[in-house]
Amino acid sequence: MFEKILIANRGEIAIRVARACKEMGITSVAVYSEADRDAPHVKACDEAFLIGPAVPSESYLSIEKIIQACRDSGAEAVHPGYGFLAENADFARALDEAGINFIGPPATAIDAMGSKTMAREVMEKAGVPIVPGATEPAKDLEEAKAQAEAAGYPVACKAVGGGGGKGFRVAMTADELQEAFEGSAREGEKFFSDDRVYVERYLEDPRHVEVQVLADKHGNVIHLGERDCSIQRRHQKVIEEAPGPHVDEEMRERIGKIATDAARAVGYFSAGTIEGMQYGDEYFFLEMNTRVQVEHCVTEAITGVDIVREQIKIAYGEELSLSQEDVEIKGWAIECRINAEKADKNFAPAPGPIDVYDEPSGPGVRVDSGVKAGSEVTPMYDPMVAKLIVWDKDREAATRRMLRALDEYEIAPLSTLIPFHKKILRTDQWARGETCRDLMEDKKWLKTTAPEDSLIPEPAEGEAEKVARDYLVEVSGKRFDVKVIGEATGFAAGAAPAAGGPKPKREKKAGAGGGGGGPVLASPLQGSIFKLEVAEGAEVAEGDLICVIEAMKMENEITAHKGGKVTKVSISVGDAVASGDPLVTIE
User: Fold this and answer.
1) How far is the C-alpha of 15 from the C-alpha of 40, rounded, in Å?
2) How would you class 544 by CB atoms within 10 Å of its CB: exposed for 0-12, middle for 13-18, buried for 19 or more?
3) 367 Cβ contact partners less than 8 Å away, ≥ 6 residues apart
4) Least confident among 179-193, 289-303, 368-382
5) I need a surface site. Which of 32, 96, 244, 527 has the fewest CB within 10 A?
6) 136, 123: one domain
7) Of 434, 451, 468, at which residue does a domain stop?
8) Least confident range of 72-81, 429-438, 550-559, 568-577
9) Do residue 117 and residue 235 come from a single domain?
10) 212 with 309, same domain?
11) pLDDT 10s digits, 509-563
12) Where a domain ends, among 179, 201, 223?
C-alpha cells in the first residue's frame, strides 16, 4: 500500500481523505494557501506544505506547485478530492509523467467524460439513453439556434466543460436563446477556460438522480445504488438523499446497469458518479463526474462502504473488496449542505467570521466540516462550511433526525443555510418527495427562511439603532428563552443574561447588509462587481437588474429595492465591495 499521500485540496474533503489515510496507516500530506495557514485541514494531516497565495490559480490550481510539494514531501500518490484539479486530465497526465500516482481515473476517461459533448457521443454509441440534443458544440449563435430548433424548446445551453451548475443557462423561448448562449459561454470561459457551448432539450422539473460506481483496474465494475439530488439552487445541490424516493427496485436495477455500462464504455476505474435525470419512468444520462462526490456520504451511510478507502485501494492496484451481490441498501440517509449563504436573499454568498461553532451529535449523525470556532469563511473559495449527514430506518425518521440535528447546530455570527434547511424539511413538498423547485425559485417564500435576528425592524428616522439580545429567565421555576429587541445601548428592563449560560451570540444590528426602504441600495454581500446595468439618470422599476456581483464562484444578480431615478452610481465594473457598501442611489 502507499506509504504517503498528498491531498491536493482544502476544507472538509481534505479532512475526510486524511481520516481515511490515518485509518489505513498512510501518512497524509496537506497543502495550503496563505489564507489557510491555520485551517483545520492543515492540522488534520501529518505534514503540510505552503503552496502559494490565497488566489486559487496560484495555489490549489497550480499543477507545478503541487507536484513540487509531492517531491518535497516524498508523496507517492495524490488524492484530488473534488473541485480544483479533481477532473483535470492535464493534472493526471502531469502526475503520471512525474512518476506520481493519481488517485482517480485514467486521463483518457477524464477527457471523455470531462467534455459534455464527447460524453454524450460516447454514451449514445454505447446505447446509453441521453437527453435529446446536440453532441457537438455550436460554432456560433446561428448554429445554436439550429440545435435548439432540432431539440425543441425549452432548451438548456451548457458549457462543454461545465459542472456544478456553472455554464448552465435555460432558454424557454427563441427570444431568450442569445442571452442564455452568451451567458453559458462566458461562464465556461471563466470557470473552465473553455467557451464552447452546446444545446439540448430542457426537461422541466425532472428529478436529478445519480448512481455511484466503483471500478478497479481488473475490469470489475459495480454500483452502490442511487442518490436523489433534486433540491438545488442555481443548478447546484443543496440537499441530497439516498436511496431515491421515487426509485423502485426495477428502476434501480435499470439505472445501475446504465451506470456500469457507461463506466465500462470509457475504460473507467476509481470511484465515479453517473448523473442522470429521472423523468417519470424514463432515465437519461446527463454527465459523469470522474471523482468522489460531495454527497458520497449518504451512499456510505446506506451501504456501509468507505468510498474514499476503495478509491485509494483501486489506485494502488487492488481489486474491489466487494461484488455487486455484496451491496445491500439499508435505511435512509439525508445530507444538508451547510453553506455560508443567505437563502432569504436568493442564496447570496455570506462570507465572514465564525466565533461560535458547536456541531450536533448523537445516534445516526455525521458532520464533515472544514472549520472551527475562530475560522473565517473567505470569498476566495466555495461557500460550503460543512455537510450534515443523518441516517435512520426510513425517510420519515431520517427527516426527524435531521431536524433534531439542525436544531443542535450552533454557528455564529456567520449566516448559513441552517434556517432554510429547517424550513424546507417541514414542508408538504418535502414529505411527498417532490423536487421543491417551486419553492426554490419563489423569492417570497425564500424570504420566510430568514433567521429571526434578521427580522429586526428598520429604525424610523430619528430613532435609535435596534439590536436583538437573547436572555434566560425563570418564571415560577420554569425556564424560558426570551429574545428582546431594543435600543443598542443598555439592557432591557427586568431581565439580564443568565449567569453561567451559553456564550451570547453576536448582536445583530437592524438593517445590516440591506438596502432597506431608503434611497441607497447597499450590497448584500462581499465580492467584486462583474456587471453594471444602469447609469446615472436611468429610470428603474422595483426588481430591475442593477448589477451582478461575483462572489464565492457565483454570479449574484442585485436588483432595485424600489422604483425611481438613479441619482448616483457608486460602483464600477471590477470594484471590490463589502457587505453594506453603497451600490446606487434611487430617488
Assistant:
1) 8
2) middle
3) 359, 360, 361, 386, 387, 388, 389
4) 179-193
5) 96
6) no
7) 451
8) 550-559
9) yes
10) yes
11) 433 334 446 899 998 877 889 889 999 999 999 889 999 888 776 778 889 989 9
12) 201
Q: Is position 239 within any domain?
A: yes
Cβ burial 384-412 (10 Å sphere, 16+ → b, else e): bbbbbbbbbeebeebbebbeebbeebebb
Angle (CA) 126 232 305, round 5°: 60
Find the domain containing 469 and state its range: 457-509
CA 402 to chain centre: 19
Tell me the CATH number at 582.
2.40.50.100
For 509-523, what is the HEC assignment? ECCCCCCCCCCEEEC
Task: Tell me the three cell numbers of residue 266.
Answer: 470509457
pLDDT per position as a tens digit, 311-342? 999 999 999 999 999 999 999 999 999 999 99
Residue keyed to cell 423547485:
437
Handedness of CA 153, 159, 161, 166 (dihedral sign): negative
Question: Do the Cβ atoms of 193 and 215 come closer than 8 Å?
Answer: no
pLDDT at position 195, please? 92
Give, in degrees to the nearest 5, the angle at Cα 551 between 537 and 181.
75
More confident residue, 193 or 572: 572
Nine cell digits for residue 374 = 475562530
419 and 398 in a common domain: yes
pLDDT surpasses 70 at 344: yes
Grid cell, residue 389, equals: 449527514
- pLDDT at position 489 is 55
Residue 73: exposed, middle, or buried by beta-carbon count in 10 A (0-12, 13-18, 19+)?
A: buried
Exposed, middle or buried by CB within 10 Å (0-12, 13-18, 19+), for 548? middle
* Structure confidence at residue 461 (pLDDT): 59
The runs of H, that is alpha helices, within 376-478 are: 395-408, 418-424, 428-431, 437-440, 443-447
Residue 295 lies in a domain: yes
Q: The C-alpha cell of 477 is what?
A: 421555576
We report the CATH number of the domain holding residue 250 as 3.30.470.20
Compute the average pLDDT of residues 563-580: 91
SS3 of 282-346: the string is EEEEEEEECCCCCCHHHHHHHHCCCHHHHHHHHHHCCCCCCCHHHCCCCCEEEEEEEECEEHHHC
For the segment 436-493, what is each residue's pLDDT rounded down to a tens digit? 999 999 999 999 999 876 656 655 656 666 677 778 888 888 988 887 777 755 544 4
Cell representation of residue 59: 495555489
Torsional class of 561: left (φ above 0), alpha (ψ -120 to 50), beta (otherwise): alpha
